[in-house]
């Protein structure tokens, strides 16, 4: 089977809920970002075969195929198609999977895989609340004993913390780690190459992640109340932040890369997707990591850097207990607890962080794993070239 090459992966700075990116329509946020990616790599937009973008809240401003709308809003050629997909928090990583797999199958030469989420303008859960009903059918509710509505991730995270015997202090210490590593990466300029600033409506430029709290402490985190009355361990401090942002990657066949003089940054080694119990739902990174490694013929010891989405602190802590990856290779520039989690863009954000950090360290293999609503997870292994 043919190879698929990662030519570039970039992201916007991640905005806090209601802050820097509140005034920009998500269609324009994604469109501007895709156009900036094409300008950075110097590729004629007319040469793109397809655009695949992830977005979770596909209602209101993010409805009606935001990938296509973003492409057109950016003034790019009408002849290029686009589609929007939803694999919950792993949506933009799944867009990368589909794009790379299309190249490997020989049906694409150049594809953009992207993602976007404006959780300020399209609130979390908006697509569930639209209309008189919900996705929770009587049969689905009966199968999982649900009596309070849709699957609840915070309560799933609490159950995982208890199952793996994680304390509130464990969760808060991990959260502090995320902020400190992200602050160190920002201050050292390590995010500079992966970030493309956003031109804001009415003037001004947004160029730095807003969610990093370099001055937080364990004492401050410990003082936060649980997220819900019947929880003890999960707080806003040890969970990912509600955020706005976009990410995009260009994926090419080797022949297209040669013909256009594009320098590949990495090649795709393996992909994996799994399903798990949708009630706890957040354990998926454990089996999907194992599956991705098995498909690649690699071991944990072979992976130079791991990016595991910090949906909640217990997700990564339980994953590490099971997988055994050394902490010095895991989320080395922080994660969603510090940087934020714009749902549909997070997988692309992680890919941008991973490939640029692999280059900085001259590493070889990197692995991304993301848990997803509804009890799923996806994972990708890349090799730097």
Q: In words, what does this structure look like?
A:
Strands 1, 2, 3, 4, 5, 8, 9, 10, 11 and 12 form a 10-stranded mixed sheet that branches. The chain has a two-stranded antiparallel ribbon with strand order 6-7. The longest helix is centred in the middle third of the chain and has 20 residues, at about 170-185. The chain contains 13 helices and 12 strands. Helix 2 (about 65-75) links the parallel strand 3 and strand 4. It has helices at about 25-40, 65-75, 90-105, 125-130, 140-145, 155-165, 170-185, 220, 255-260, 285-295, 315-325, 335-340, 345-360; strands at about 5-10, 15, 50-55, 80-85, 110-120, 200, 205, 245-250, 265-275, 305-310, 365-370, 375-385. Helices cover about 35% and strands about 20% of the residues. The model has no long low-confidence stretch (mean pLDDT about 95). With about 375 residues, the chain is of the alpha+beta class. The radius of gyration is 20 Å and the shape is globular.
